[in-house]
């Protein structure tokens, strides 16, 4: 069951539902009764993307159609824009990026909701990182509040490769951002990070699966989130250490703030270990802001709402600071500040 299959066949019964364990908190079948018509091509102006000024090349995909494309550079910075400019219609798109052995590429990926909204979008990515190559992927997701979107990235690492990822999202009516990594061990290094900042009735599901298949692999994962109003955040992280993948070093952390009695966070970190001589750990915390810290801030003349925003910004800031690309780190800081109603500093 998948959104891609449902769009291809037009059969809503192919959508994943709460009966599917990995989709229990992001039920699509219970939400979507019929598959909408295909989104039409949009030839109007979609404006500038959040990363255009930072890129050596840009690929623009609107409603699933490649509207502007440049050859992906072997090294440097590539901006990849997925724009949904639709009104209650559906579209999907696929894109592949290959980083040649020894090369370094930064992929700046954005999801931009425009138009009247209510769209259904499915994106599939195939990312391949060659031997000794490096790929940093930063994903900024800005869907409309009434959208339903799924993005799935399949990542294949070669020996000695480095892949780092940071996802920043404000959610949608239903939203799932999934990353599946085939980790060869062999001194390859992986970092998977994420931030979700949700309010209203927005929903975001950050799901990852890393499969360590060989000796001497490293995975570091850190996701932080905040939910307010009636929002719902979902984190599912699974690390599988296959037989023979000894000396794997894998660490996963998820930490969330709940700022409303009606908001919800569902978390399911998993370690499935079938090898000896490994160092693996996971941590998960869900709580509220420190009221004592808020009190101290108010005693110093800081209004309560600003104090709460400052503490939340500091809470997720650890993830932002792990972004390696300097200019993109500044964009991420500004995005966090804007989502929290603060001016970027």
From TrEMBL:
Protein's GO biological process: iron-sulfur cluster assembly
SUF system FeS cluster assembly SufBD core domain span: 89-315
SUPFAM superfamilies membership: Stabilizer of iron transporter SufD
Protein name: ABC transporter permease
Organism encoding this protein: Caulobacter henricii
Organismal lineage: Bacteria, Pseudomonadati, Pseudomonadota, Alphaproteobacteria, Caulobacterales
């Amino acid at each position: 069951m998948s959104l891609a299959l449902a769009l291809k066949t037009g059969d809503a019964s192919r959508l994943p539902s709460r009966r599917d364990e990995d989709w229990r908190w992001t039920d699509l079948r219970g939400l979507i009764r019929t598959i909408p018509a295909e989104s039409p091509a949009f030839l109007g102006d979609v404006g500038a993307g959040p990363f255009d000024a930072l890129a050596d090349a840009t690929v623009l995909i609107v409603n699933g159609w490649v509207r502007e494309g440049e050859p992906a550079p072997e090294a440097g910075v590539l901006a990849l824009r997925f724009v949904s400019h639709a009104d209650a219609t559906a579209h999907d798109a696929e894109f592949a990026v290959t980083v040649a052995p020894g090369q370094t590429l930064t992929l700046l990926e954005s999801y931009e909701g425009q138009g009247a909204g209510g769209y259904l979008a499915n994106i599939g990515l195939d990312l391949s990182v060659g031997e000794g190559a490096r790929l940093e992927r930063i994903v900024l997701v800005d869907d409309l509040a009434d959208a339903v979107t799924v993005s799935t990235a399949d990542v294949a690492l070669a020996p000695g490769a480095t892949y780092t990822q940071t996802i920043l999202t404000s959610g949608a009516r239903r939203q799932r951002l999934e990353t599946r990594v085939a980790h060869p061990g062999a001194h390859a290094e992986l970092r998977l990070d994420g931030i979700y900042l949700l309010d209203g009735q927005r929903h975001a599901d950050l799901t990852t699966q890393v499969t360590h298949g060989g000796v001497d692999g490293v995975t570091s994962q850190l996701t932080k989130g905040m939910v307010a109003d009636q929002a719902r955040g979902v984190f599912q992280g699974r690390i599988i250490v296959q037989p023979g993948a000894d000396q794997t070093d894998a660490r996963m952390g998820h930490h969330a703030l709940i700022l409303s009695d009606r908001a919800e966070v569902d978390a399911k970190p998993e370690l499935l270990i079938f090898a000896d001589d490994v160092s693996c750990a996971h941590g998960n915390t869900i709580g509220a802001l420190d009221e004592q810290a808020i009190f101290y801030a108010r005693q110093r003349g800081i209004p309560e709402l600003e104090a709460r925003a400052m503490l939340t910004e500091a809470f997720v800031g650890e993830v932002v600071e792990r972004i390696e690309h300097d200019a993109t780190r500044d964009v991420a800081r500004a995005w966090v500040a804007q989502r929290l109603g603060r001016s970027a500093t």
